[in-house]
């Protein structure tokens, strides 16, 4: 996808969030000396349309600076979402950064409160992996949540406390029952992409497949090609 097309797409962030494609979740340790911003920029150059900046251990100040750096590196070519921290997203937006929304988990601020804080135009994603989670989403006002992050698909070291893996078959059942689009996440690699799209995924979120790659742009290109193929 050309930079010009991507630049146009990010003017409709919530629409893009419902048709995600390959979605990078960053990991500072896995990005190593290259840095998160450089890896994110390479991934976007390879066709990634969404970057979720995830940082579980940094201070608020350092997380804020990381979000600014990623937003600057990505520019208008992809959505930039902030993991968990609605306050960091709001601060980055107030500072003029090109950030587009947040992704929250089940133990974070409730989705209704998140939507009230970020407004009607921001993207709100929510982690979900059980029938009870789906019931809770169905009870929300339409438009509260734009997509679900569903998984894990396979066991993954990036989230050691993850629930039991769904696999592609379990994801298919989950996505078909979900009231909003579902992005698959958790241990996903290149061989999984086509099967997940066929199973109803609106996107596939990857961490290691890009963050640990020798050539993140090339890895992104391969993932995008598999998705689009």
In a few lines, what is going on in this structure?
Helix content is 44%, strand content 16%. By secondary structure, the protein is α/β, with parallel strands linked by helices.
Overall description:
With 229 residues, this protein is an alpha/beta fold. The chain is 44% helix and 16% strand. Strand 4, helix 7 and strand 5 form a beta-alpha-beta unit. Helix 4 packs parallel to helix 5, helix 4 crosses helix 12 and helix 5 packs across helix 6. The chain is globular.
- Give the low-confidence spans: 1-7
Shape: globular
Gyration radius over CA: 16 Å
Strand line-up of the largest beta sheet: 1-2-3-4-5-6-7-8
The beta-strand count equals 8
* Alpha-beta content class: alpha/beta
Order of helices and strands, N to C?
Answer: HHEHHEHEHEHEHEHEHEHH
Multimeric state: single chain
Instruction: Tell me roughly what share of residues is in helical segments.
Output: 40-55%
The span between the termini is: 13 Å
Report the average pLDDT across residues: 93
Annotation field: number of helices? 12
Strand content: 15-25%
Describe the biggest sheet?
8 strands, parallel, barrel
């Amino acid at each position: 996808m050309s930079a010009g097309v991507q630049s146009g797409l990010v003017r409709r962030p919530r629409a893009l969030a419902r048709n995600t494609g390959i979605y990078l979740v960053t990991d500072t340790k896995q990005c190593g000396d290259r840095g998160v911003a450089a890896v994110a920029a390479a991934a976007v150059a390879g066709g990634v349309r969404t970057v979720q900046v995830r940082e579980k251990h940094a201070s608020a100040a350092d997380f804020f600076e990381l979000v600014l750096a990623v937003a600057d590196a990505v520019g208008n070519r992809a959505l930039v979402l902030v993991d968990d921290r609605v306050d960091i997203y709001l601060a980055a937006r107030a500072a003029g950064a090109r950030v587009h929304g947040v992704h929250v988990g089940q133990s974070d601020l409730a989705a209704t409160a998140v939507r009230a804080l970020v407004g009607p135009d921001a993207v709100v994603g929510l982690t979900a992996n059980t029938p009870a989670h789906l019931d809770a989403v169905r009870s929300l006002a339409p438009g509260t949540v734009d997509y679900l992050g569903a998984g894990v698909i396979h066991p993954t070291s990036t989230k050691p406390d993850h629930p039991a893996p769904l696999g592609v078959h379990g994801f298919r059942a989950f996505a078909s029952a979900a009231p909003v689009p579902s992005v698959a996440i958790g241990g996903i690699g290149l061989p999984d992409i086509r099967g997940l799209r066929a199973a109803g995924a609106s996107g596939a979120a990857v961490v290691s497949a890009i963050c640990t790659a020798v050539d993140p742009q090339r890895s992104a290109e391969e993932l995008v090609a598999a998705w689009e193929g």
